[in-house]
Amino acid sequence: MDLVTKSAAELGELIASGETSAVEVAEAHLDRIAAVDGKVRAFLHVDRDTTLAQAREVDERRAAGEDLGPLAGVPIAHKDVFTTRDMPTTAGSKILDGWRPPYDATITARLRAKGLVILGKTNMDEFAMGSSTENSAFGPSHNPWDLARVPGGSSGGSSAAVAAYQAPLSTGTDTGGSIRQPAAVTGIVGMKPTYGGSSRYGVIAFASSLDTPGPFARTVLDAALLHEVFSGHDAMDSTSVDAPVPPVVEAARRADVNGLRVGVVKQFAGEGAEPGVAARFEEAVELLESLGAKIVEVSCPHFTYALSAYYLIAPSEASSNLARFDAMRYGLRVGDDGTRSAEEVMALTRAQGFGPEVKRRIMLGTYALSSGYYDAYYGKAQQVRTLVKRDFDTAFEQVDVLVSPTTPTTAFPIGERVDDPMAMYLADLYTIPANLTGNAAISVPCGLADGLPVGLQVMAPVLGDDRSYRVAAAVERALEDRWSGPLLAKAPEL
Ligand code: GLN
User: Fold this and answer.
1) CA nearest 438: which of 247, 129, 211, 203?
2) How far is Cα 110 from Cα 165, in angstroms, rounded to an integer?
3) What is the pTM of this model?
4) Could you tell me which of 71, 183, 79 has the C-alpha nearest to residue 126?
5) Which end of the chain, N or C, is surrounded by fewer C-beta atoms within 10 Å?
6) For residues 41 and 163, what is the distance between their CA atoms, to the nearest angstrom?
7) Mean pLDDT lowest among 2-11, 247-256, 266-275, 398-407
8) Are strands 75-79 and 169-174 parallel, antiparallel or unpaired?
9) Cβ pair 228, 253 in contact under 8 A
10) Confidence band (pLDDT; 50, 70, 90) for 272?
11) Looking at ligand 1, which atom is closest to the CA of residue 207?
């Protein structure tokens, strides 16, 4: 029984029926990590003993009759932006060197409560700023489809781990596309829930009005099962939504689009996308039509300004959030030899502890918020945000979901964009509107272009997360029939 190729749902059932155990499943995945992570570099931290201890505890809880739900005993790779009591948390930065969080993030705690077994912490762009993991202070992760290419970012360690069968599930955070974009370029499923639908407590903050944790998986159903574990009101997060969790698992099982109105965003239909991506997108729209969806072209005229607004709003919030790394409270402290003032130590620590992209964002954000420029930059960007929201509101009067490609290009070569921040930022062209407004959006594989995966984005109204799952599951089912199996089966052996 090759446990690492099974879905999370299948593993959960095998463990529940006693055919295998959480320990056996964890061992199989730890062995896979040991075999391939030298090439993929998805993980920043793996600790076999801690993981196996968790797995043993789950087996004991199950044996004692505790009902832990469908993912009990299933392993998961956890983005290194979530605090974990028993593992380091770096956010991909040197500035958190040596820091051990004194508490678990709400999502970490919910994973444990439902019996998921944490395999380790995954690589990411420093403070989640980036689209390739090349901004990680610990070096890039590699795309399992082509090791010379990026696995996307910022949650690129998490996407690579799932695509390389090192874990059936992983966690991510999506501030401007950091779940959907890496999912798209590695051929897996990634979901950004409605903002506030998943708790930010214990997630190291980048841009607090945008940051949204969400799941990665190889199947739409697995993503929905994990989504459900994450969800529900959290009193520790002041922006947590106190509303019933959308019926995402039911929607993933339903997997039909009959009679659903699907809007094609005119401004994003092929606009700015490379030809292979545009072609797969058009085919996906035709597929949806053949499955009974009604296709409607919808105009969202302000979506094209979303990227510019995001790159003012996100750095502004980051410049404030990252002020807490002051050399006193967390991790790294440079030059504290008794001769320097606190201010000097702070300056030295921040100069050494932050990488170039983080410094760029802090400078951009500080500038956009400075008196005299605030109205022209930050204020204007917030106005654009309102216009993007109105575009969504108008669109959802006409249609049930909106579709676009997830990313303009497939996975790009490592090194190609490191010296060109604008080119890197453009990876988020299609994903950012849903972040600015808090809408739900998923990426599901829809084919290959030149041998590399392409993702279809399905955007849904706020708290309409189930619609994204329903459409994604229908696409997944139809394409698996066409391909006689999942897209990932076409990936080369590692
Ligand atoms: N790539 C975007 C950025 O660099 C989005 C990052 C994210 O979603 N965390 O800001």
Assistant:
1) 211
2) 23
3) 0.98
4) 79
5) N
6) 12
7) 266-275
8) parallel
9) no
10) confident
11) 9
| Helices marked H in 272-341 | 275-290, 306-321
Q: State which fold the 3-299+393-490 domain adopts.
A: Amidase signature (AS) enzymes (3.90.1300)
Would you say 74 and 168 are in contact if contact means Cβ atoms under 8 Å apart? Answer: yes
State which of 124, 131, 424 you would mutate to test the pocket of ligand 1, scoring each by most atoms of that ligand within 8 A of its C-beta.
131
Q: Which of 82, 129, 424 to mutate to test the pocket of ligand 1 (most atoms within 8 A of CB)?
A: 129
Give the closest residue to 465 by CA, choosing from 376, 400, 378. 400
Show the ligand 1 pocket: residues with CB < 6 angstroms.
128-131, 154, 173-178, 206, 314, 428
- Catalytic residue flag (residue 154): yes
485 — pLDDT class (breaks 50, 70, 90): very high
- Number of alpha carbons in the 13 Å side-chain half-sphere of residue 54: 27
Is-catalytic flag, 341? no
The 8 Å CB, 24+ separation contacts for 242-251 are 243/463, 245/197, 246/194, 246/197, 246/440, 246/463, 246/464, 246/465, 246/466, 247/466, 248/224, 248/465, 248/466, 248/469, 249/221, 249/224, 249/225, 250/466, 251/224, 251/466, 251/467, 251/469, 251/470, 251/473
pLDDT band at 457 (very low <50, low <70, confident <90, very high): very high
The residue extents of the domains of the chain are 3-299+393-490
The answer on pLDDT for 271 being more than 80 is no
Residue 216, strand partner residues: 170, 190
Q: What is the chain's alpha carbon radius of gyration, rounded to the nearest angstrom?
A: 21
Is residue 1's pLDDT more than 80?
no
CB count within 10 Å of CB 460 equals: 26
Per-residue pLDDT, averaged over 304-308, amounts to: 96
| Spacing, Cα 204 to ligand 1 middle (Å) | 14
CA gap 81, 111 in Å, rounded = 15
Least Cα distance to 51 among 132, 116, 95, 1 occurs for 116
Give the C-alpha separation, 204 to 322, whole Å: 9
CA distances from 392 to 115, 163, 306 (A): 38, 32, 12
The answer to whether 79 is a known catalytic residue is yes
H-state helical runs in 399-437: 421-425, 432-437
Q: What percent of the chain has pLDDT over 70?
A: 99
Looking at residue 269, what is its pLDDT? Answer: 79
The answer, yes or no, to whether the previous bond of 320 is cis (omega within 30 of 0) is: no
455 pLDDT more than 70: yes
Structure tokens that stand for 462 in this block: 């706020």
